[in-house]
Amino acid sequence: MKNHSLTATLAALALFCSCSAYDDSFLRQDLNDLKERIEKLEEDAIKTNSDLNSLSELIESIQGDGSLFIVDVTETNNGYRITFSDGSHIDIENGTDGKDAPTISVRQDTDGIYYWILVSSDGTYQWLTDDNGNKLRAENTCPVLGVDSEGYWTISYDGSTPERILDENGEPVPAIGNIFSDIQIVNDSLVITLSDGTSVTIPISTDFHLIITDAPDGTADFTFGQTRTFTIESIGVESTVIVKPDEWKASISNNILTVTAPTAEHAGCAELEGDISIIYFSSDKRSATVSMSVMVSEEPKTVGVWVLCEGSSYEPTADLAYFDAATGTFTQKYYSNKNGEPLGQVANYMGIYGSKLYVAISGNPDAQSSYLKVLDARTGELLKSIPMRCDHSHGEGDVLRQLAFHNGKIYATSYYSGGKGDGITYLYHGGVMRIDTLTYEVEASVAVGDKPEGIAYHDGKLYVCISSSGNGNTISVVDVATFELEKQFTVPQNPTYIKTAPNGDIYFSTLEIYTGPNAGTPSGLHRLNPETGSVTTIEGFRASRLGITDRYIYSGEFSYSSFQDVINRYDMQTGDILPITLDNPFFMVYGFDVNPLTGDVYVGGSGEDVAFLNADGELISYYTTGVGFVNQFVPVFE
To answer: What is the 3-state secondary structure of 16-41?
Structure first.
């Protein structure tokens, strides 16, 4: 009937719209009133749906798998805030008797499970079912209420088409009313009375819970590198385990949860959003989980690129060049000009971790000139120079090679090149050192094999290339938790550089072999299965240092056998290999890296040559460093 009435009204409006003397204000008012009423009813539907979702969560706390339970109920101005064991909360309000509401309720069936029901005014009810006739469990599926254009309640679930709710006489139900009629706390239980008179009693856990009391309702926003603290309230908690996204830090001390977001330097390999989850345990083996969503709410940008120049093997001529992205300026010998001293002898590796730039100086072992240099990653200012030596009676020092970073620690490959014998214990001979980033102390070391080179972290393990001066054929695996050698995999000869791709695959390169029975074997790229140790060789790909994006691997070499430069791009998805040719080729291609944000590729030569390429291998610009053997690039983000 109302549909016809509305149609007639609209037709009358159209008939008289051209007559300026006709007073149609009452029609406009009727339409405005109807529009406002529908808008108000839609707001009521939102509130009712919120109540239904709240009821579903309450039922889950008593009907679910036991991982969700009520830990706190606080009275508000017009109802209660109910807090669950996972840290989430719902707000529910005391309502009216709800006599005109679509009486959606729950009822416990003979199987002990709560299901959704639709209640008639005479107290009879019917189960709400899906398209297959199955009753809808109250903790799994929540009906969605709506209001149609005439102000009547509609219902849908599981994406079905909304249908009008009918009363016991088959008439549509006007959209007025509430779901909850009364809420009380009785003997450590929450007693909720619904509009149809049904009561649901839910126990409140008072002896075991953990809550992040000031966690935001939605997501906790961070800037890069920001640290925020949150208050913990707990009862009966004996121990906790924290699970966090990659590159985030989180700890609990004195009822304070401290969370630190990844730095901009780690934006390319970090998870910029996710959940900080605290799994907590009681002395009687109960457990529950509370979670807080976190995210970095800013976009990183590249502000510069550090360029590591290895320098001479015989003199301390190593240095850093720097490219300023804002000005487009490339500065030669940046480090020595900034700090008034040479970087060292043979700069072998560098990496940014946190706000620091760490540089591994191999040095001359006889002169004890191997150092770990700690610099400010933004300014290049030297903060600390850590000598890498063992104080052996012969006076020789260690040779620091390559670095990996994880969970506040630096893992450095190193070997001792002094003479053997005389009962001398070589602490770091062929080993990995663990260095704390706060104290800069060498905490421990583990022997891994003769002359280790490349090192990469993956899933709780360190994978270390054992080059043995070109004769080695193993990759050692160190368990980070125990810091012990776990196993060794046999791989192709002369493994030297290794990296973990963003998808978790591990790739390593073997350098060209010049002596021995396998002399003439070209360099190669290989994929390592971290579980089995099996190796897949990427046929036809010449490689040395590696630059890896989420899809491509860039590498190449200067071959002393053919006296030719090779630069290649390997597509990890398709397996295709694309040769890259530069208009102004280097003499002896030497170093590679990529920018994880932009995909730009950086190539260094054995001379002073530097080329910046885009992700497709097209030249952006050439530079010269002023120091030879350009072996590595590290972009700086903010």
So the answer is: HCCCCCCCCHHHHHHHHHHHHHHHHH
- Please state the separation of Cα 585 from the chain's center in Å: 39
Q: Do the beta carbons of residue 466 and residue 474 sit within 8 Å? A: yes
Residue 370 contacts by C-beta under 8 Å, 6 or more apart in sequence? Answer: 361, 362, 363, 387, 388, 389, 397, 398, 399, 400, 414
Q: Partners of 555 in the beta sheet?
A: 568
A 10 A CB-CB count for 618 gives 10
Look up residue 23 and give its amino acid.
D
Residue among 525, 500, 501, 499 nearest 511 (CA): 525
Side-chain half-sphere exposure of 128, counting CA atoms within 13 A:
29
Interatomic CA distance for residues 614 and 104, integer angstroms: 60
β strands within 471-588, DSSP E:
474-479, 484-490, 495-500, 506-510, 524-528, 535-538, 547-548, 552-559, 564-571, 577-579
404 conformational bin, left if phi > 0, alpha if psi -120 to 50, beta if neither: beta
Minimal CA–CA distance to 90: which of 68, 66, 113?
Answer: 68
Q: How far is CA 349 from CA 116, 453, 591, in A?
A: 64, 10, 11
Residue 417, pLDDT score: 56
Return the pLDDT at 234.
Answer: 87
Q: What are phi and psi of 632, to 5 degrees?
A: -160, 155
DSSP label at 341? S
CA-closest candidate to residue 363, choices 395, 338, 389, 331:
389
Sheet holding 461-466, edge to edge: 452-458, 461-466, 474-479, 484-490
Q: Is residue 180 within 8 Å of residue 192, measured between CB atoms?
A: yes
Mean pLDDT by 10 residues, the chain (638 residues): 25 28 38 45 52 61 61 71 73 52 70 77 71 73 67 69 72 62 72 71 75 86 88 89 90 90 75 90 84 87 95 92 96 97 95 90 76 94 85 57 91 73 48 89 88 93 94 96 95 96 91 90 95 95 92 89 86 94 84 90 94 91 95 91
* CB-count burial class (<10 Å; 0-12, 13-18, 19+) for 495: buried
Quickly tell me which residue has 């009547």 as its tokens: 152
Say how far apart CA 512 and CA 519 lie, in whole Å. Answer: 8
Strand order in the sheet with 104-108: 104-108, 114-119, 125-127
Report yes or no: 608 and 578 within 8 Å, Cβ to Cβ.
no
Q: What residue spans define the domains of the chain?
A: 27-203, 209-296
CB atoms inside a 10 Å sphere around CB 615: 16
In contact, 461 and 478? CB cutoff 8 Å: yes
- Distance, in Å, from the CA atom of 43 to the CA atom of 53, rounded to the nearest integer, reads 16
Residues 60 and 86: beta-carbon distance below 8 Å: no
**SS3 of residue 5 by DSSP:** helix
Question: How many Å apart are CA 519 and CA 522, to the nearest integer?
Answer: 9
Q: Give helix 25-63 / helix 2-16 axis angle, nearest 10°.
A: 150
Task: Tell me which residue has tokens 């959003």.
Answer: 273
Whole-prediction pTM value? 0.61
Q: Which CATH superfamily is domain 209-296 in?
A: Immunoglobulins (2.60.40.10)
For residue 11, give the H/E element and its range.
helix 2-16
Q: What is the CA radius of gyration of the chain?
A: 34
CA 104/CA 124 separation, integer angstroms: 12
Integer Cα distance of 145 and 177 in angstroms:
12
Q: What CA–CA distance (Å, rounded) separates 274 from 115?
A: 33
